[in-house]
Amino acid sequence: MRKLTLILSAVFVFVLSAAAQDRTITGKVTDEKGTAIEGVSVTGSDGKQGTQTDKEGNFRLTIPSSVRSLNFSSVNFETQTRPVGSQLVINVSLRPADKQLEEVVIVGYGTQQKKGFTGAASKVDTKEFAQLVTPSIDKQLQGRAAGVDVVNAGGSVNTPAKIRIRGYNTISFGASPLIIVDGIPITTGNLALTTNSNAIGDINPADIESVDILKDGASLAIYGSKGANGVIQITTKKGSKNKTSLTYDGTMGFSSISEKFSVLDAQGFVNIANEKFTNAGQAAPAKMDAVGTNTDWQDNVFVNSAFVQNHTVSMMGGTNKSTYYFSLGYSDQQGVVRSNHNRAFRVRANLEQEANKYIKFGNNITLSRQEDKDQQNGSNALSGAIVSALRALPNVAIHNGAHATGYNITGNSLGQGANLRTIDDNYVNIAFVLDNNKFYSDKYRIIDVAFVDIMPVKGLTIRSQLGIDYYTDNSFLGYDPRHGDGFSSVGRANNGQNNILATTIQEYFNYNKTFRKHSVYLTGGYELSQSTTRFYSATGTNISDLFFLKENVVTNTASTQSVSGNYSKSATESFFGRVNYDYNNKYFIQATVRRDGLSSLGTSNRYGNFPGFSVGWRPTQENFWKFKFFNDIKLKGSYAIVGNPIPGFRYLSTYGSAPYGNIGGIAVSNVGNPELKWERSKKTDIGVELTFWNNRVNLVADWFKNDIDQIILAVPTPPSAGIPGNNILRNIGAAENKGWEFSVNVDVIRKENFNWNMNFIYTNIKNKVKSLFPIGNAPGTEITNPESSPYNIIRIGESIFSLYGYRYAGVNAANGNPVYYKANGSLVQRSVSTGAYTTATSLNDGVAGTASSLGPADKVVLGPSNPTYFGSFTNNFTYKNFGLELMFRYSGGNKIMNVTRQEVLLNQKFANSGTELLDRWTTVGQVTQTPKMYYANDAIINQNGEATSRFVEDGDFIRFQNIVLDYRFNKATIARFRDYIKSVRIFVQMQNVAVWTKYKGSDPEGYSNFGVDATVAPAIRTTSAGITVGF
Amino acid sequence: MKSLKNIITVFAIVIAIVLSGCKKSLELVPFNAFSDETAYSTPERCLLALNGVYDAAQSGDYDPLNGTAHSVRGYPFGAAALEQNEMRGEDMVNIATFFQITYQATYTPVSPNNVNMWINLYLLINKANLAIDGFKFALSKGIISTTVAAQYEAECRFLRAMAHHELLINFSRPYLDGNGNKLGVPYHDYAISSPASLDKLKAHARELVSVCYDKILIDLDFAETNLPAGANVVRAAKAAAIALKMRVKMHKGDWSIATGVVFEGNKLIPNGPINPLVWTSVISPIGGNKLEQNPNGAFLNNSTLESIFSIKNDALDNTGVNAALAQMFGPNVPGRGLVAISPVIFNSPAWRCDDKRRDTSTVPGSVPLAPTPTNMIIYGNSNANTKSFFTRKYIDYVNQADYTPILRYAEVLLMQAEAEARNSGVISQRAIELLNTVRNRAIPAPALNQYTIVSFADKNALIKAILDERRIEFLAEGKRWGDIHRLAMDPNFSTGGIPAKVVNGFSNNTGLYGCSLPIPPLNNLAIAYADYRFLWPIPQDELVQNPVIVPNPGY
Fold first, then answer.
1. Residue B360 and residue B376: Cα distance in Å, rounded?
2. I want to staple A715 with a disulfide (CB 3.0 to 4.6 A). Which of A74, A138, A392, A773 is the partner?
């Protein structure tokens, strides 16, 4: 600090030493071709004097003699500084802004010029997807940046995308990146109580100026304990001084599911269902009715052309001391499941005002309201929309006038029609449920960032910033008492209120000093972030009348009432500092340190330090560099230690509420481990950035390694210990993500009327578990039943959450039994009727073998559940006024456990099934992959609850993600409107045009975190058209 | 240089803010839970902690072991426990998938139904042990009195004993097999409260069945001594400890008047003459427990004196639609129709056709929301929309507030009857009287129809009648497996293992149910006593995490 003060005083003295004597400078500003440029701001080096060029590019400025240079700046040109010697005329030719050179990276608590940036970050050009139909930014990051894997599972319009930056960096806790908007971390996730929801949807994508994704240690170290999963920096738009523009963006279109599930029709169902029963020695219960009813339940559940629209009106501009950006947005997305809906109303107002040359203040605020409607989505839920649509009997009608509701219902199940029994397992009439049950969430959000910048001396900015992120959700759930989930409780109404208030206080400075060829950039400060969650809900069951459960719980209408609630608070306190040094734009070095204190840790481990270092070199700046072919080369390397924090109070042993009926009680709810601390990620990155062929090719390649240790694992305790959850958390695991990223951007053709830009991104990630906890008394080599999934394994040497199960050999052609490989390679068959295992000599073995078994020892790793490579390939063409973008994404190397096939489509119940069952074994000698059917023996025939190679499929795909065709009207065409219209662009586009994959499920990205596809809505395809008008 | 001052001032302010930094803002504690240091700091909290142990008996966290969400279910002493004990026997039939694995004995070390019984019984045991430590701590600090501390500990030890006994009948061979010289379960009489205390457990191997029975009885003796004598259905009282001792000694085959079932039973049954025609002719001197007039009396009202100990459920806190007694055992409308009565018992000649407990006079398929004192079976739709007979003991479909019956006075009388019958060299008159006291309230004209000494060819015929009476009286109360288990080595009354059953999902669609109708053909599900499947497998997780525990052979 003392040194800094010294430097500052030195600078100050230097500035004051100039004397005062005025003179007037005139001149002309042109571009490289000599065309005059209007509106270039010309300012004296002390910032006190300023003017702008007129239409002819001329300027006139009076300056004191203390001003030694003039700055010429304009939005689309490189800023130039010209020394003022004795001359009174200064003519300047400005060069167009070179994107590569002038681009800045939004780093933590400041910005850095890209040329001097030694970390690894991807900047996503928001223009590329600003008009795509999507309510939130997260889903549009797919394929836009190397190292960033974004999976948008299922066709729900409200669910957040899953974002993984440089692999899966944890096992038990959050693996999503930290999301920062205008410098303040915001709350993200699927937070609504009764519906899916996406908190990042509160940011209107049209308001986003830039997205910077920080990936390596050097960029993340400044985020300390929260940096392990990467950081996405979102910067919203700001106005420009002395310019005003009004823009309208509008898009409308239709969504549909990309592919229906292939299920049996009525006659097919009758045949298959009866065979299930007759094979089991029971009477055939399925019958076509007299009118040959053939219902396609998917047609009832899915909407074929769901209307979607986005509209944003934005205004930006400023005076010479202020800038503003203001927008109103409306987005309305009907989902493909007909009850699924998202609607957002968003307002943003960004304002910056200079009080004087020392003080500036600003405020960025978003007000948002998001409404979500949804349905039961559970893959096993009795009224789960998708599962019900697939299982519903196709030979019964949706409606039945004879039933009081008008729907076809028997008991509390789907109506049985002509069948001799109702659908198994109480599956409901999904049409009734979607029409009458209500899942609704109404959310309001305020995200406000207010700051004051004090700039006491040149190069020094001290910022005091306060961020408030307030989220409130009012959720309602109403279950109709007549049928479905509300039947046994005679109606259920539930209201939930969830408030999350996150505040962040930041005090930090940026100091920038260049002397001769040395540049120093210092950042340091303090941050305190606190988060409070308040929740309560009220539930009434046994509702006196249907009338009372349509919108809200109503006083005294439920004969049984209950309330619940909770409150929690957490805080993080941090100190941070960063030093950048750059010699002559050639050598770069950076050091960062952050010290974090976390309220979620015990006192002995509460604070931790997180350092980071990086270096860079631009050989093209060296005098000895001869290869002029290269416009720029940068070599860089970085290393840092960052963390992943732990939520809650898991270090404490606690007693929570445990009522015994209506008698209050408490019982141990957590056995804590006071030694807990954050998970640690040691990140290494080595990279090169090349620009060549007249700046037409830009190539970035990075090798990275995330060495993760202190991974918190729920170390199992013997169940007989009687510890809640049967585990105690410990920092005990280790893993690594290693790989390389490659992206290349080529201006293939640069002609006056025709441009072709090509962008290719490739990422390769190897994930490997390195150590785990001891099991029993031996060192642990694997976790065979990770808490969240039975289909996965965490095994040393393998990728985290690899799929794990039995090897399927096929069907015994002699008897239709499924056959598996035992660990020793021998065959074992499982009787479809009794579930007993016997040996088999071949896949055509008619002789009953001896009793055998298939057990945990016979399981093998069937493949990684996360992609090992992914990327995109984008081509942009412009021809005259036309533009065409074609974007392809690809991903692969992973396997998907198709539980939808296993449990739903191949079920052995009295329920509809997938057409795959048409291939079932029926006759001796038949070679097929689908075993003999046997009523009710799903678990036996399909090994439900286990992964088998029969259902573990390749996840590789290439997706034609987007096609966008646009047309910009000539200035001449709109000339007669020029008083009020400046530009018009129209476009048509299609999202998710096609997928090429071998995956048999609905979509190769329709899987959860761990590579399990469990009956999610099929992916959405959206076709839309829109217009952008500038006023 | 004024500006320099300003700079320094600004920095000073910034640094002051930083250093004043909100150190306290990190010192947060949970709002919704006590730290374990404060959970026993007042007498009120001690009582809350005791109630929390009962809660662990009422309902538990069901881990489906397949990655889907955990949920509250009727483990270890709710509907799930009762049903599994029925599903292991032959008197009820499984309809849907819920208990198919148990019904067909296809369980493995990773079958959720069996694993969750183990998990939740030990969770109850550890909560009891933690609470015992807590009460001792509170006593040492003078927070609660010696009397209160002893009573609370007694309640915890009652639950601990009950939980261990439930483990033994599922995971271990019966006592009669070699007088308890087979492997039992680890009997945990100490708390696991921290990572460090796991070490003790990991050195604690499975004890012999006989050792476990000894420890159960030590706990129950302590409970009997320290529990209050007054009746209390939902908390353990002295009568509950004694009745549970009767059951445990019955499993031990200790029928004797000196130490066994009769010794305990005599504390709850007055030594005088019994008039079986008057249901109140026997009233317990401890707790005042007695029969209700009607066989359904204890179920129409959860809190009668016939119930010695039940687990409380009510509208506020119950095991939910997927695990409540009425939902599980009741017909598909308005319940779920998952477990029905089997023709094995329904058609049994041992069950009089005019027995009130089999009265099915309700209109078939009607909604059974208005139970009557005797109408205990409903003919209705099953989960598979087939026709079946369901129990009506559990009636609260809406609020799911039926208590789980654990010990009823009827059981005390029938245990005593069996013990008297076995102890006697001849046909025991007192045993007949005890049997009749329970049975007479369910049969018409009991004075004419009750059992007499001539009803039985010999002593064993009487015992057989008592055992049949247990199947009828306790149908759907989860007692069938206990009887199969304890009698497996009995020379005269063994079922030989898991008895044959009707096929999974059996229904009355073809009219096979009916009093006096023959029992339909039984599926090939009988499993000999010697078969490994007679025992449940020790859960895989236990074997993996705690190698000192040896598996049950065969799995």
1. 7
2. A773
Q: Determine the distance in angstroms separating the CA of B134 from the nearest CA of chain A, rounded to an integer.
A: 11
pTM of the model: 0.81
A789 contact partners, CB below 8 Å, separation of at least 6: A801, A1010, A1012, B66, B67
As a whole number of angstroms, the distance between CA A145 and CA A874 comes to 12
Neighbouring CB atoms inside 10 A of A772's CB total 22
Phi, psi dihedrals of residue A500, rounded to the nearest 5°:
-125, 120
Q: Give the 3-state secondary structure percentages of chain A, helix then strand then coil, rounded to 5.
A: 10, 50, 40
CB spacing of B545 vs A835 below 8 angstroms: no
pLDDT at residue number A887: 95
Distance from CA of B93 to the nearest CA of A (A): 15
A556 near B CB under 8 A: no
How far is C-alpha A768 from the geometric centre of its chain's CA atoms? 23
Is the backbone of residue B219 left (phi > 0), alpha (psi -120 to 50) or beta?
alpha
CB B462 within 8 A of CB B417: no
Q: Which chain B positions have a beta carbon within 8 Å of A380's beta carbon?
A: 68
Tell me: the pLDDT tens digits for A626-637? 888 899 999 999
Q: DSSP 3-state assignment of B525?
A: coil
Q: Do B67 and A1012 touch (CB under 8 A)?
A: yes
Instruction: Determine the residue among B317, B336, B369, B387 to mutate to test chain A binding: the one whose Cβ has the most chain A Cβ atoms within 10 Å.
Output: B317
Q: How far apart are CA B305 and CA B307, in angstroms?
A: 5
Answer positive or negative: Cα dihedral of A390, A392, A393, A395. Answer: negative
What number is the ipTM of this complex? 0.91
Q: Which of B356, B349, B357, B516 is nearest to B444 (CA)?
A: B356
* Residues in B touching A462 (Cβ below 8 Å): 10-11, 14
Residue B397 with chain A: CB contacts under 8 Å: 488
Alpha-carbon torsion angle B410, B415, B420, B423, nearest 10: 180
**Whether B22 and A528 lie within 8 Å, measured CB to CB:** yes
Q: What is the CA radius of gyration of chain B?
A: 26
SS3 at position A298: helix
B508 touches chain A (CB under 8 A): no
Copy the structure tokens of residue B431: 């045993």
pLDDT beyond 50 at A2: no
Six-digit token string for B201? 């457990």
Work out the number of other CB atoms within 10 angstroms of the CB of residue A625: 12
- Stretch B280-295: mean pLDDT, rounded? 95
The packing angle between helices B146-171 and B43-58, to 10°, is 10
Asked if A660 and B192 come within 8 Å (Cβ–Cβ), the reply is: no
Task: Find out whether A373 and A272 touch, Cβ atoms under 8 Å.
Answer: no
Q: How far apart are CA A802 and CA A613, in angstroms?
A: 33
Which string of DSSP letters, residue by residue, matches A619-633? GGGSTT---TTEEEE
**pLDDT at residue A103 is higher than 80:** no
Does A716 contact B27 at a Cβ distance shorter than 8 Å?
no
- Report how far residue A765's alpha carbon sits from residue A782's, in angstroms, rounded to the nearest whole number: 21
Q: Give per-residue pLDDT as tens, B387-446.
A: 899 998 998 988 899 999 999 999 999 999 999 999 999 999 999 999 999 999 999 999
> Is the Cβ–Cβ distance between A207 and A234 less than 8 Å?
no
Structure tokens at B528: 């000999």
> Vertex A47, ends A41 and A52: CA angle to 5°?
20
Neighboring chain B residues of A569 at a CB cutoff of 8 Å: 28, 31
Distance from CA of B387 to the nearest CA of A (A): 10
For residue B123, the chain A residues in CB contact (below 8 A) are: 722-724
CA pair distance A279, A894, nearest whole angstrom: 37
The answer to whether residue A351 scores a pLDDT higher than 90 is yes
DSSP conformational letter for B185: -
